[in-house]
Write a structure and sequence with these properties.
Layout (H helix, E strand, L loop, with lengths): L1 E2 L16 H22 L2 E8 L3 E7 L5 E8 L4 H16 L3 E7 L3 H8 L6 H12 L5 E5 L4 E7 L2 E6 L8 H10 L4 H8 L13 H13 L4 H21 L8 E4 L1 H5 L1 H10 L7 E4 L5 H8 L7 E2 H9 L18 H12 L13 E9 L3 E7 L5 E8 L4 H15 L4 E9 L3 H8 L3 E2 L2 H12 L5 E5 L4 E7 L2 E7 L8 H10 L4 H8 L13 H13 L4 H20 L12 E4 L6 H11 L12 H13 L11 H6 L2 E7 L8 E7 L4 E4 L19 H10 L13 E4 L5 H14 L3 E4 L5 H6 L11 H15 L4 E3 L2 E4 L14 H13 L1 H4 L5 E2 L2 E3 L3 H11 L5 H36 L3 E5 L7 H4 L2 H6 L4 E4 L20 H13 L5 E8 L5 H13 L6 E5 L6 H20 L17 H6 L1 E4 L4 H13 L3 E4 L5 H10 L6 H15 L8 E6 L10 H11 L7 E4 L14 H24 L8 H17 ...
Parallel strand pairs: 1-10, 2-5, 6-9, 9-10, 12-15, 15-16, 17-20, 24-25, 24-26, 26-28, 27-29, 30-31, 30-32, 32-33, 34-35, 34-36, 36-37, 38-39, 38-40, 40-41
Antiparallel strand pairs: 2-3, 3-4, 5-11, 6-7, 7-8, 12-13, 13-14, 17-18, 18-19, 21-22, 22-23
Length: about 1450
């Protein structure tokens, strides 16, 4: 499908290449245009300006929308001059036109304000251009310099997805990659035209793609293949990272610079999306679309002449935000000299090799990009050192150095033992037959301990990797490595120095005396570029930039990668190393930020090799003969490298085969022993992961002719790894043929990638889509995937036995997002069940399979229950057998503890096999959990069954010496923010080493292998020292809030909803508590929260804990006379654990004496001095009710008030009265009714303007929804953008909690007595409390009353089951439907980043809501300390512009 742009007189200025007479001809043409200029001089034209992150684009259109002039130029941060230059070109050609200007683009907003030119959203501009030039477009993919977007057009609805905090896969990423192959983007495009095969490259992070490309270059991959692979990586990143469950179908347009100029990148998209010519929208000027669109949106009533525009541009404009400045690194020359002097002391004794006599020891450290070699004498003095880039072949580099050593060795010196370490450790060991190989962390520890025997932390920052090694009791205790983001590594400083034409040394030197270092924060390195450019515009010189980079490298390293909450956690004796620390500025900024004095050895770059040599020295015994190749053999060594694919299993690992002379070979790149021709488990140690997989899934299904009732498909995902034996037996007994989806692999994942609704959920959940998709293709009669709310109650003493929110409800996401199920081509049955006991299960299944005889269903369920029990007993028996075997053989075992589904090989990436290859038995957490029991109460709320097992397993492991525990943690698993800390407490508290491995879809085992080997070496050291461990209890001492405390203690409560809590405070005070609601809910308290809460915890917990800790540290409260109150629902989401988070923070800050009061109606914990009696409950309920009335009235009237400030004044007047009312001696309900009526009447009578504004509902997670600090003041933002905000009542959440109990009693076997009490509670709230308010709202002119909770439930039920009860659960979906039905189709769904329930009932239902209510216009916004506000703002503004458009078209229809 071709579209061409209408073009008017358009003259190319590039005339040098034309022959003479043609020039004369063009001269005439110019003369002719000269006349045209006169003709155009009076004409009105539309000017569109698009200021991107790297370029400026302009387009000038005439009244018929033809393009008169357009151009595109990189701005290198000089936006004003570039724009001036482009406009001047147009001025030279067309004279002084009358312009109607409009600006768009990511860098345009501030410029628009300076030039007094209107600004339009980029998406609106692009969609206008598409409507005009390519009206049939369904999806537009646009790549820019630092951003990537996908825009969907569906019947008037526009939806945009854009990259948030990672610039992988954008134009700058392509530039970065091109420089690796010594070319530019255009060169890359030329290479890609002739590619033969594609390699897989990570596009998640530019620096990681380097890691993938570097070995490929080393292994001799062609530039053609690399170029095409880089483009393919960009395509994968864009589609999987941005589309998130929205298929890219129909007519697709490709926009933006990279896609316009790089034909092969576009070809890669077309290839991957399987587009034919008809569905590829080809447009001229696709790189100018935003500029053309903004010209199309230009307003007739805004105009100025071209000369006026150029004049405004030439006047001095203060551009954009000021970049913050930081304090200088050194106060003066003297402090720098003192610093140099101090660091001069950390130097290694060297001796001249020529003068040395005796034994020498060799250490080789083969890194990812460099090779380091050290030779030390018997006294540890350094005799020879070598440091060089690999230049593509680490072996060649090492051979060169070894030959040199041999040539230098004087008589009487022998190399008696050698050791290799680092990335290429095994390769070096194989090539030169070295004596030892040691994991790099241990080598680094040996080297650091040489300088300071009491070292407790080693920080190593290399080119693209970063390690923090914590030392405890003279052994490596824990290792942290950067796994997914490399901001803050040395290669970034190097690249930057080059771009400013500096050598790294000069660049570093410049930083030392910088007066105003710029603050670059902690962000992705690609985004830092734009901050640096910005600072340059504000006159920052190279010194300020260099010093700013030094600060940011350290901040990134400490706060993003190592994730220390407080730099002092690192320890007191810190050794820093790695090439990056040669830079004095980096070292100094580390000392400033960590507030410590570090040791930087003078051999910081070769510490690994030095440590390896020291290890060889330690292990040498008299009479030992080295195996290392002699000089002659070294000279004769020949080797060749080739590549192959392993066919051992479905992983198809890419192998690199190194062949050496003498028939030896070394193979790398494989996950197990098979690729080398060995056995998978050569040591024959028990591997219970393997056993469990077979035990769970090796059931025979009925043959088709023996299955009278047909086929049922069961996906091999999440809770099936726990309950499959039950379901297989159940269905087989009923006469169904069970079809189980195959083992997960990458292909299965890709089958379902289109329907994944949320990019931040965990990999195990994402895999579910592929498994269901596979079953649908097998044409099974129905897919059965139940939602299990309660797992079996297996662990004694646990407070509950929930499943995690994702495991419970994930089948709902399948129901609402898989197309075949949504449009009825396939059937999914997903009943909500409880496995608490056999009778509850039988009852629920009889109801679900009502079409079958109840007797048969009951018999099948009983058989399934028995089989499930048998499976559990088998696992326990196997665990006990393995333990007996370990005791017999004296070998060690590792409990690899995670969730049941971590036994899926695609999820654990072959970790169990890797551990078994070290001759260690591998056990699962459920094979030993029955042997241990933690002492309670634990600091956490122990309410999830899988996790209770974890704690029990850890409690057993700490009691025996031959077992250790490694915890597996899926990336994006929210609950592990709770469990990892608890498991760590149980183990570390009793002197065991705790290791946690984070796993996601990327299967790089390098980091995991380093962690496991470090753990093993630390265990060895501990065994040698024979230190006695003492076992400590895992229980905590809870400080109760007593009756005496009630008299003189201040109770502080974190702020959640100011409009409610200011009245609530009076209610509590009236009941005799000295109650204070905090008012410090701001950005600073979030920063404090980051210091005290696990980094994976959700945003609300940071806000809550941050407010509390900030208040306690402010000095305003007497810490001996203060208590904290926090609500606790006892539901299955993380919020129930906030009380635990607070206690942990208090512990960390040394304030354990402060009591924490849990405010709950579920009897979770109680305090003798705090009573939730009827008086307090009634007062609190009335306060909440007043808050709800104020919220409805103020938000409804304030946007329209005729007298600015009148609504707020009325609100303040009534707040005072409400506070007096709830704190009066006797609360009278009749008086309450009267007061409600008066409030509503007075607000209803406020004089307002006759204007129409779009109404926007705010729903989502309770804290982010109500707290202005949590949602970046969303209500004010919406009102300032000309909209009206609508927030559902707080009381509804209480009703939702009550209603849940009724459902649970009916369907999940919980107490019927509680349910009856809750039904009474609902009646009381809706009829007694809300009665008069509802009546008055109905009578009013402007307000609507709240819906009864049963009505909201009936709204939600067609979309999600009422069984979704974690977080806001079904209620969130119900609220959205209620808003849409009340005529508020525009909704902001707020959630904390990675909020588990919201993956299902928030983001997960948007597709289903759109289908049911096509007018719905919903935007889901993630809130997080690291989220970009600009991104949030852009998406909210886009939603508002759609809302405004819909409102206008409605008004037009009404007037027709």
């Amino acid at each position: 499908m071709e579209f061409t742009t209408k073009t008017a007189a358009h003259c190319d200025a590039n005339t040098e290449a034309l022959p003479g007479n043609a020039e004369a001809f063009l001269g005439d043409a110019n003369a002719f245009l000269g006349d045209a200029d006169v003709f155009l001089g009076d004409a009105d034209v539309f000017l569109g300006i698009d200021i991107g992150s790297t370029t400026v684009k302009i387009a000038i259109l005439d009244e018929a929308h033809r393009i008169l002039f357009s151009d595109y130029e990189r701005h290198f941060a000089n936006i004003r001059e570039t724009l001036s230059r482009l406009l001047d070109k147009a001025y030279q050609q067309f004279g002084n036109l009358t312009l109607h200007p409009m600006i768009t683009g990511s860098g345009g907003l501030t410029l628009a304000n300076c030039l007094e030119v209107p600004f339009t959203q980029e998406v609106i501009a692009v969609s206008s251009a598409l409507l005009e030039l390519a009206p049939r477009t369904d999806v537009a993919i646009e790549l820019g310099g630092e951003d990537a977007k996908i825009i969907y057009f569906e019947g008037g609805n526009v939806e945009q997805r854009m990259n948030g905090i990672c610039a992988g896969g954008t134009g700058s990423f392509i530039d970065q990659m091109a420089s690796l192959i010594q070319t530019d983007a255009a060169g890359l495009n030329e290479y890609a035209k002739n590619y033969k095969s594609l390699y897989s490259i990570a596009a998640r992070c530019g620096v990681f793609a380097k890691t993938d490309i570097q070995p490929l270059i080393n292994e001799g991959a062609t530039k053609e293949d690399l170029a095409a692979s880089i483009f393919q990586a960009v395509v994968n990143q864009t589609i999987s990272g941005l589309a998130c469950g929205k298929p890219i179908r129909g007519y697709v347009a490709f926009l933006g610079g990279p896609l316009h100029f790089l034909s092969e990148l576009k070809a890669a998209f077309i290839r991957t999306l399987h587009l034919d010519d008809r569905h590829t929208v080809n447009t001229d000027n696709s790189h100018l679309f935003a500029a053309i669109g903004s010209a199309l949106n230009a307003k007739k009533d805004v105009s100025c002449s071209m000369e006026e525009m150029l004049r405004r541009l030439s006047s001095d404009i203060k551009m954009e935000f000021e970049v913050e400045r930081m304090e200088p690194l050194f106060a003066d020359r003297a402090s720098y000299d003192a610093f140099r002097e101090r660091h001069r002391k950390a130097h290694v004794g060297t001796a001249r090799l020529a003068d040395y006599k005796g034994n020498a020891f060799l250490g080789i450290d083969a890194g990812s990009t460099t090779t380091k070699i050290a030779l030390v004498g018997e006294d540890g003095s350094l005799l020879y050192s070598f440091y060089s880039n690999n230049d593509g072949s680490p072996l060649k580099t090492a051979v060169r150095s070894l030959k040199e050593i041999h040539e230098l060795l004087p008589e009487g010196v022998r190399i008696v033992r050698s050791c290799s370490t680092g990335y290429g450790e095994a390769l070096m060991k194989a090539a030169f037959l070295l004596d030892d190989g040691e994991v790099e962390t241990v080598a680094h520890y040996y080297a650091a301990a040489f300088f300071n025997p009491d070292v407790d932390c080693i920080l190593d920052i290399g080119g693209q990797d970063m390690k923090c090694i914590k030392i405890k009791d003279h052994a490596v205790d824990s290792v942290l490595l950067n796994e997914a983001c490399s901001s803050g590594c040395g290669s970034f400083i190097e690249t930057f120095a080059k771009s400013l034409n500096y050598s790294v040394e000069d660049f570093a030197e410049a930083a030392v005396f910088a007066e105003h270092p710029i603050d670059l924060g902690t962000r992705c390195t690609v985004f830092m570029n734009s901050r640096v450019k910005q600072a340059q515009k504000e006159g920052a010189g190279v010194p300020d930039i260099s010093a700013g980079l030094a600060y940011s490298v350290i901040k990134n390293a400490l706060f993003k990668v190592i994730k220390v909450s407080d730099a002092s956690e690192l320890g007191r004796n810190i050794v820093v190393q790695g090439g990056t620390f040669y830079n004095d500025a980096v070292l100094r900024s580390f000392e400033k930020i960590a507030d410590c004095q570090a040791i930087r050895p003078d051999i910081a770059g070769i510490m690994g090799a030095f440590g390896a040599a020291l290890i060889a020295r330690e292990r040498f015994e008299e009479g030992y003969m080295t195996h290392m190749l002699s000089y002659e053999k070294l000279c004769a060594l020949k080797y060749e490298t080739s590549m192959a694919k392993c066919r051992g299993c479905t992983n198809s690992c890419r192998l690199t085969i190194n062949k050496f002379s003498g028939g030896r070979q070394y193979i790398s790149g494989n996950r197990c022993e098979r690729g080398i021709g060995g056995q998978k488990n050569a040591h024959d140690v028990p591997n219970l992961f393997d056993y469990k997989l077979k035990r769970l899934f090796s059931y025979e299904s009925l043959a088709p002719d023996q299955a009278p009732r047909g086929t049922v498909g069961i996906p091999r995902v999440l809770n099936m790894y726990e309950n499959y034996p039950f379901w297989h037996t159940f269905f087989t007994k009923l006469g169904y043929r069970v079809v189980l989806s195959p083992s997960s692999n990458r292909q299965i994942y890709e089958l379902g990638i289109e329907s994944i609704p949320s990019e931040s959920e965990c990999y195990p959940a994402k895999l579910a889509h592929g498994h269901v998709e596979w079953l649908i293709r097998q044409k099974v009669d129905f897919v059965f995937y139940p939602a299990l709310f309660y797992e079996r109650d297996e662990v004694e003493g646990a407070t509950n036995h929930y499943n995690c929110p994702i495991v419970t409800s994930y089948s709902e996401n399948i129901k609402n997002n898989v197309e075949a199920i949504g449009n009825g081509q396939a059937t999914l049955r997903n009943p909500f069940l409880s496995f608490r006991d056999i009778s509850t299960v039988t009852e629920a299944l009889t109801r679900e399979f009502a079409e079958l005889p109840a007797r048969e269903v009951a018999a099948a369920a009983a058989a399934g229950w028995e089989e499930l029990d048998r499976t559990r007993m088998d696992m326990r028996k196997k665990g006990e057998e393995t333990i007996a075997w370990l005791q017999e053989t004296g070998k060690r075992g590792i409990v690899l503890a995670g969730r049941p589904y971590h036994i899926d090989p695609e999820i654990n990436h072959g970790l169990p096999e890797m551990i078994a290859s070290f001759d260690l038995a591998v056990l699962t957490e459920d094979s030993v959990s029955h042997l241990g029991c933690p002492e309670r109460p634990l600091i956490v709320s122990d309410q999830w069954m899988y996790h209770s097992r974890l704690y029990a397993a850890a409690s057993f492991v700490r009691t025996v010496d031959y077992l250790d525990l490694i915890q597996l943690n899926s990336f994006g698993c929210g609950l592990d923010a709770v469990t990892t800390d608890q498991v760590s407490d149980i183990l570390s508290g009793s002197g065991k080493i705790y290791t946690c491995l984070k796993i996601d879809e990327v299967n790089n085992l390098g980091a995991a292998r380093i962690r496991v080997r470090s753990l093993l070496s630390a265990i060895k050291v501990r065994e040698k020292s024979h230190k006695e461990r003492t076992l400590h209890s895992s229980a905590i001492e809870k400080v109760p809030f007593t009756e005496e405390m009630r008299r003189d203690y201040t109770i502080i409560c974190p702020q959640m909803s100011p409009i409610h809590f200011e009245i609530m405070q009076s209610a509590f005070s009236a009941c005799g508590y000295n109650f204070v609601v905090l008012d410090n809910d701001n950005r600073h308290s979030v920063d404090v929260g980051l210091k005290y809460v696990n980094n994976d915890a959700c945003y609300p917990s940071l806000l809550v804990v941050g407010q509390i800790m900030e208040a306690l540290q402010s000095g305003r409260y007497d810490l001996q006379k203060t208590a904290i109150v926090m609500s606790q629902t006892g539901g299955g989401c993380r919020a129930t654990n906030y009380v635990g988070f607070i206690r942990r923070a208090l512990q960390k800050a040394g304030m354990e004496q402060i009591p924490v009061i849990s405010l709950n109606l579920a009897g979770i914990e109680s305090n003798p001095g705090f009573h939730l009696n009827a008086d307090l409950l009634i007062r609190a309920a009335l306060a909440a009710q007043f808050g709800d009335i104020f919220m409805r009235c103020v938000y409804r009237m304030r946007p329209y008030e005729a007298v600015p400030g009148s609504v707020d004044a009325l609100h303040r007047k009534w707040v005072k009265k409400a506070q007096d009312f709830v704190s009066s001696k006797h609360v009278n309900l009749l008086g309450f009714g009267r007061m409600c009526r008066n409030i509503i009447r007075e607000f209803d009578a406020v004089p307002i303007l006759d204007v129409k504004k779009p109404r926007v509902g705010i729903v989502g997670e309770i804290l982010v929804k109500f707290s202005p600090a949590g949602n970046n003041h969303l209500v004010e933002l919406l009102e300032s953008e000309g909209a009206e905000a609508m927030v559902p009542d707080l009381m509804d959440f209480m009703l939702y909690c009550f209603y849940n109990q009724i459902y649970k009693a009916e369907h999940l076997g919980t107490s019927r007595k509680t349910a009856r009490a809750c039904a009474l509670g609902i009646w009381t709230i809706e009829h007694v409390l809300r009665g008069s308010m509802v009546k008055e709202f109905r009578k009013s002119r402007h307000f609507t009353p709240p819906s009864p909770i049963r009505t909201i439930a009936s709204y939600a039920e067609p979309i999600v089951s009422i069984g979704n009860q974690t977080g806001e659960g079904w209620f969130l979906t119900g609220e959205m439907v209620e808003l849409i039905r009340e005529g508020v189709p525009n909704i902001v769904c707020t959630q904390p980043f990675g909020c588990l329930p919201n993956h299902v009932v928030g983001k997960g239902v948007i597709k289903a809501l759109r289908k049911r209510y096509p007018e719905s216009n919903i935007v889901a916004i993630d809130y997080d300390p690291g989220a970009s506000e600009v991104n949030q703002l852009n998406r909210i503004k886009l939603m508002l512009s759609t809302a405004q458009k819909n409102l206008n078209s409605k008004a037009e229809k009404a007037s027709d």
